[in-house]
Amino acid sequence: MSNERRGPTKVGFQPGGDCDLMQCAANSFLPPIPGITMKTEPMPAEATKIRDESPRTRDDSGKIRVLVIDDHPIMRVGIAAIIQATPDMVAIAQAGNGEDAIPLFEKHLPDITLVDLRLPGMSGVEVIRTLIARHPNAKFVVLTTYEGDEDIHQALEAGARSYIIKGMPHDALVSALRRVHAGGRFLPPPITRALASRLPDSELSARERQVLDLMVGGKSNREIASDLGITEATVKCHVSVILMRLNVNDRTQAVVTALQRGLVHL
Question: 80 is in which domain, residue-wise?
Answer without folding.
Answer: 45-196
